[in-house]
Structure formats: C-alpha cells, structure tokens
Amino acid sequence: VEYFKLAIQAHQSGQFQQALMHYQACLQLQPDHPDALHNGALAAMQIEQYELACQMVDQAVAVMPESPQFHNSRGRILIHCQDYSSALSSLKLSEAVGGGGFQVDLMKGIALRELGRYEDAIQSFERARSQAPEQALVYQHIGLTWQTQSQYPAAIEAYQMALERDAGLIDVYVNLGSCY
C-alpha cells in the first residue's frame, strides 16, 4: 500500500520513471493489483516503454475486464504502438462495458483513419466534436483526415477552426501550409 501511495505521488508530479518503479514494487507484493497495473501502464507509456505498457494494461484488463477505463487506456497505448486494429477493438470494448465519450470517440477516429476508414473516422471525430466543441485537437484530427484524402478545402477549414481554439498548435500550421 505504501508503494502505491508513493507511485501515485510520483505519477501526479510527472515523475513517470519513479512512479513506474513504485508501481512495480507494489506489484511484487500484490501481482494482481488492478490500479497498480493500470497506472503503471500509463506511466510506462509516458516514458515510451510501450511494450511494458501493453503488458501491464493487458494484465489490468484481465484482472478487471469490466473496467471501461482499462479498455480505453489499452486502446490509447495500442495507438502509440501503431496497432490500430487492436486499439479499435479495445475502444469498442470500452463502450460495451459502459465507457465512451470524447476521448474514446477521438481515439477511435485516429485508429479508423490509420486503418484507411476515412468516412468512419470523420463520423467518430464529429461525435467527439459534438461532445467537446472547444477542443482544438478534434479539429486538428478532422483536418488531418481530410488532408490524407486530398480534400484540401475541408482540411483547411478544420485546421483554421483548430487554430481559433489553440493558436499554439505548431503541427496544425505545418499541415495547413501543406494544403496550399
């Protein structure tokens, strides 16, 4: 229990390597501690240890398969691993066990776009946008999806909407410039 508290403190202060070390110490004492597995996976993802993150989140899901948050995190980690098909399956499982919302729709859109399912990706991004219309990130991904299909006017419009919400998105300026 003490290791878990130390892990949470380190995690919340952005010390992901230290947090991961404490989560792993907690798991030595309680190998099936679902929150240590889940949070450890997130800490591992933050320091780009994606293989470890996948292993830990898979264990967390095995311990608590009814947790939408665990399926959601698994999808997010798998997107970082570029396993888009598995990510999409995890995100759908998150919805099936009561999860969903902006983050799930946004991540599903990313996975769908990377799988070449552009129309489905746009629909998923539009669901995310309807839930959080002030989130610049969703417009950035809508723009990227349109740009991937050489639909430049639609991409430009989405990128401009992203910049209206967050003028500091450097990637959006680069992508916008590529549309002209």
What report would you give on this structure?
This protein has 180 residues and is mostly helical. It contains 11 helices and no strands. The model has no long low-confidence stretch (mean pLDDT 96). α2 packs antiparallel against α3, α3 runs antiparallel to α4 and α4 packs antiparallel against α5.
Rg: 18 Å
Shape: elongated
Mean pLDDT: 96
N-end to C-end Cα span:
56 Å
In percent, how helical is the residue content?
over 70%
List keywords for this structure.
11 helices, mainly alpha, 180 residues
How would the blueprint of this fold be written?
Layout (H helix, E strand, L loop, with lengths): L1 H11 L3 H14 L4 H13 L3 H14 L4 H13 L3 H13 L5 H13 L3 H14 L4 H13 L3 H14 L4 H9 L2
Brief account:
The protein is built from 11 helices and no strands. The chain is mostly helical and 180 residues long.
